[in-house]
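Work Package 4 report. The design task specified in the project plan requires that, given a folded chain encoded as structure tokens, an amino acid be chosen for each position. We show below one input record used in the internal validation round.
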């Protein structure tokens, strides 16, 4: 019995008429073969034609195919070869490869091969797993931190700087309220806030980042984690902080600040109080936000209200924890 092959997007005519046509055509061809059977070559040709016509009879009963649209070459190839014209098919998990895309190695072979090269560590498939692992580790480490406020600021601030002392006081005030302090884990402002929190007996968290010029986590952290990827690290800041205090800093500090503001503005997260500490430092940026961005219609007139400026560390803590106190 001939195998039925579907043709996408083509519908058959009424099967009864198609069957009659094919059967009549088959009868005519058979009669022709009997009349001209003396020629061997000619006879073989007609037999092939009859075989092809016979093949077509199977397609006519199928609603998805039209018996009168097949030519002989298509019918024969569709019947006898289901394999791809690109050759054999190779499966690697959900990935399908054919032809020149088929690798010469296998997943198991790569796993078991004793290869001193470490290039595989930097391949994108492995990066995906590493990113996933960072999320899992971060969620697991911070799940029980409790209410917390993130303190952002420069790693270059000296210990003699008044802002360093203010950040240290912020950490102490947060600890006294039972609120954890979360920083980037580095020196400068980050160290100051962690120092104030840890010396006051509070929870002092540092979320570091692997950078060539960074010194690692500071010594005033009682819960710390170092990340490879900025976006994973920033996810942890946003997820586990109920408020944000932004002290003077550079591009990294502003990146963290605008990340939070963007998420709040677009309602990706619930409202997070954002405090800019040191009005002299931030007033130029705030004036540009409140003036140029608003006047030119780049942001909504109410968007500048997402931030508050202060020079008082006590006020900064009060505002940053206002949702926690509720």
């Amino acid at each position: 019995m001939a195998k039925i092959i579907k043709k996408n997007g083509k519908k058959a005519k009424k099967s009864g008429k198609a069957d009659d046509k094919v059967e009549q055509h088959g009868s005519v061809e058979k009669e022709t073969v009997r009349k001209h059977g003396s020629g061997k070559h000619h006879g073989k040709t007609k037999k092939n034609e009859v075989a092809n016509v016979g093949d077509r009879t199977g397609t006519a009963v199928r609603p998805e195919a039209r018996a009168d649209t097949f030519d002989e070459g298509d019918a024969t190839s569709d019947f006898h070869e289901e394999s791809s014209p690109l050759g054999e098919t190779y499966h690697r998990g959900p990935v399908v490869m054919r032809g020149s895309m088929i690798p010469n190695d296998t997943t198991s072979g790569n796993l078991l091969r004793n290869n001193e090269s470490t290039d595989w560590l930097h391949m994108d498939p492995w990066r995906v797993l590493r990113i996933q692992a960072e999320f899992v580790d971060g969620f697991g480490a911070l799940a029980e931190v409790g209410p917390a406020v993130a303190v952002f600021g420069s790693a270059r601030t000296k210990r003699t700087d008044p802002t360093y002392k203010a950040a240290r006081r912020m950490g102490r005030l947060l600890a006294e309220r039972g609120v954890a302090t979360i920083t980037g884990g580095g020196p400068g402002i980050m160290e100051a806030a962690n120092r104030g929190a840890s010396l006051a007996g509070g929870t002092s968290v540092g979320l570091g980042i692997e950078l060539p010029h960074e010194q690692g986590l500071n010594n005033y952290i009682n819960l710390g984690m170092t990340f490879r990827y900025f976006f994973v690290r920033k996810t942890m800041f946003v997820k586990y902080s109920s408020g944000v205090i932004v002290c003077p800093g550079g591009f990294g500090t502003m990146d963290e600040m605008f990340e939070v503001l963007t998420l709040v503005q677009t309602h990706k997260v619930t409202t997070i109080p954002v405090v800019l500490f040191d009005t002299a430092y931030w007033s130029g940026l705030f004036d540009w936000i409140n003036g140029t961005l608003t006047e030119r219609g780049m942001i909504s007139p109410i968007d500048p209200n997402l931030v508050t400026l202060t020079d008082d560390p006590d006020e900064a803590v009060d505002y940053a924890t206002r949702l926690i106190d509720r």
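Residues 1-81 have pLDDT under 50 and may be disordered. Validation will be extended to a larger panel in the next phase.
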